[in-house]
Amino acid sequence: MESFFAEGTRVWVKEKEQLLPATVNSCGDGTLVVTTDYGEVLYLQQAEVTREQVYAMHQTSIDGVEDMSALAELHEAAIMHNLYKRYQDDNIYTNIGSILAAVNPYKQVPGLYDLDRVELYSKHHLGELPPHIFAVANECYRCIWKRHDNQCVLISGESGAGKTESTKLLLQFLSVMSQNSAGTPPSEKTTRVEQAIVQSSPIMEAFGNAKTVYNNNSSRFGKFIQLHFSESGNIQGGCVVDYLLEKNRVVRQNPGERNYHIFYALLAGASKEHKSLYFLEDSAEAFHYLSQSGCLKDKSLNDKELYNMVMEALKVLEFTEEEIRDMFKLLSGVLQLGNIEFMTAGGAQITTKQVVTNASELLGLDAFQLNEVLTQRSIILRGEEICSPLTIEQAIDSRDSVAMALYSQCFSWIILKINQKIKGKENFKSIGILDIFGFENFEVNRFEQFNINYANEKLQEYFNKHIFSLEQLEYNREGVQWDAIDWMDNAECLDLIEKKLGLLALVNEESRFPKGTDFTLLEKLHSRHSTNPYYVKPRVADHQFGIKHYAGEVLYDARGVLEKNRDTFRDDILNMLKDSRLDFIYDLFEKVGSRNNEEKMGTARRKPTVSSQFRDSLHALMATLSASNPFFIRCIKPNMEKNPNVFDPEIVLNQLRYSGMLETVKIRRAGFPVRRTFKDFFSRYKIILKDKVPTAGDDKKRTTDLLFKYDKTKKEWQLGKTKVFMKESLEQRLEKDRDEVRRQAAMIIRAHLLTFSAKKHFKRVRAGVITLQKHLRRHIQRGRFVKQRKAALVLQKHRRGQVARSRVKKLREEKKKREEEAEEERGGGE
Q1: Which PANTHER family does the UniProt entry name for this protein (predicted)?
Q2: Strand, coil or helix: 435
């Protein structure tokens, strides 16, 4: 043992049925001393140590790997240790094939998301660079053209794991890719749409996010953002679908939590003039809806900065000044409603008359009518109006229902305005990003947590089906040999919730009965499902029921479930809001139905309950996701206190277990995640072959020939009946070689184009030169001719002069000779 475990040896130690990464401190005196990576020192008696209890760590676990499919040791501890090792070095991203695990650093990592990093990842395939959310975004963007179908990114994890930030980073990367796509400058409309999509984030964050005990910026609604792309790669438009805003948070928060960010931002950022206009001169402590939880500020949240971001975003999205003013009036009105107090005097009576006046002025309501609605119930019976006083508890419920209705209708209006601004053509492909509430388990879990965890069960089912059962089914159908893997199946838990006479059905059924109460509902739930292994009937609490979710057991408080599920108004409250002097308030409630009207309509025409609407929305979402090519990002929080550089192994291990991460690693390593039909495969990769490709032949044989050139051992690929199955590493090599062949071909084409252009330019220049030469030669020849002519004239002149002089001389000589002869004759005669 001493020789095997030298000092400093990295080992796995089994402690309390868990494997822990550790380092050997000493191995003498019969005692093996090791220190785990998580700070615990263990003293083990060498005589009792077995190889199952302590054994050497594989080199891949010692060094750490970027893709956990490459780990030689496939167990939970090795996966967690790999995440921990990378987390210590600020490498928060780790791949599991094409699935990305992201550990929240709870701090800014320098240079991790700057434009240089965007540029770098946009030029490389998945797997060529270290794991990063930009690598997933880039592959998602490429797959629009590679696969010719819609893409979607599912971001999952507990509240506080970093889902919302991941969504913003994906939008940032895709926006940059859109602007740089295909060398085509985006149109002015495209640029406006991109800006609107990016700027919608701070608005949705302000109105839909809040501080919870687990997360300072928790999304209290779900959203599915779809980006529509043109064939040239520009963002043409988009759409936001919202799910189940937590209305109850407007009027009530758990200790240590806050209301929605926008309220604190408005108080921190509004000018003195606006504060006076909205009756917001007091600090947040003065408003019951903000101060009741005991938490008003958080060091990680800058409310004034958020206000400025929201105002800038509202301008980009072209909200008018009147709309912004009315929206802030509504928010201020909600805060004023929360300060209305009651006392008992023959029924509930309002003691804060000035607050009622302020709220009425902000919301355009009649103060007397608001006072009446909050303190007494008015119903029409046989044509006569009958009023009955409310208790203080009922009056508070009335006040809170008005506040929740105002806020939720305003939120829906904001989403509608955003969609109107970013709407575009849907004629090509889309990328959907799902950012939906994480699994929640608080001290008190209400109707909202029930729906949230139901949504997470559906998403887990989709993940399971996609990663596990669909993979196995595909392999079996295609006759591909591989080792089948057992996986976590949550189908029975979902059956408990949504099957016939399941929890949802019973909640909706009881909601339809006028005399149904939360306690009659609880009795039916216990009676029907107490024997179900996934249902929990608490022994002590008389107002709770529980569900054993994939992420753990959760107890839900049945009180308030029916009222929240019905989500209807009293006639008098709705009529008061529709009588508002503000067109903004009237428009929000114009199409809202009342409780009495629905009862008159009968069962067939009643408004669907909240849970049934949410169920239908979830099923529609699942249908959209099933028709898309999915990418998964698993967000993990390293500790519950949101502290940087702190990695709690127990917290992380629980998330790894219920997320199916271990099974994911196994299946990604054992299976062949990439598959293409033979025709599609050969059509895409035939350009890699240097030999001439025959026009006729069997696609399967040609595919086989090509694959054998890359892997003769067939370890990285197998042939099915209609498809070829490959490891991701092989596809990455094929894609890289294909890009290289295309690059070289492009260079040859470019060279020929440049040659053609150069020749054309040369011919044009040569023709010009020849013309210049012609004119220059003519000019030179003419100059030479003129010079020669002048010279010839001079020569002619001199010659003529010479001839003339010669002739004159001759004539003179002849004359002289005649004269001499004549004289001689005269002399001889004498």
Answers
A1: AGAP003327-PA, MYOSIN X,-LIKE 1
A2: strand
Nearest partner of 438 among 643, 230, 212, 279, judged by Cα: 212
Binding-site residue positions for ATP: 157-164
Known active-site residue 160: yes
pLDDT in tens, 74-133: 778 888 899 999 999 999 999 886 689 999 999 999 999 999 999 999 999 888 899 999
Task: Tell me the pTM.
Answer: 0.77
E strand spans, 538-652: 544-549, 552-557, 629-636
Of 209, 219, 259, 360, which residue is the catalytic one? Answer: 219
- Look up 508 and say whether it is catalytic: no
Q: Which residues are annotated as a binding site?
A: 157-164
Q: Is 26 a catalytic residue?
A: no
| CA proximity to 467, closest of 452, 492, 489 | 489
Q: Which tokens in the block code for residue 351?
A: 């003691």
Let me know if 180 is a catalytic residue.
Answer: no
Taking only the tens place, the pLDDT of each residue in 320-343 is: 999 999 999 999 999 999 999 999
Q: Which of 194, 440, 471, 731 is catalytic?
A: 440
Beta bridge mates, 22? 11, 36
Task: Please name the amino acid found at residue 508.
Answer: N
Please identify which of the residues 61, 164, 212, 580 carries the catalytic annotation: 164
Describe the strand order of the beta sheet including 429-435 as a list of residue ranges: 93-96, 99-103, 629-636, 151-156, 429-435, 222-229, 235-243
Which of 503, 612, 632, 601 shows the shortest CA–CA distance to 558?
503
Using a 10 angstrom Cβ sphere, with 0-12 exposed, 13-18 middle and 19 or more buried, the burial of residue 527 is: exposed
Catalytic entry in 64, 97, 127, 160:
160
Q: Which residues contact 326 (CB under 8 A, 6 or more apart)?
A: 582, 584, 585
| Cα of 29 vs its chain's centroid, Å | 57
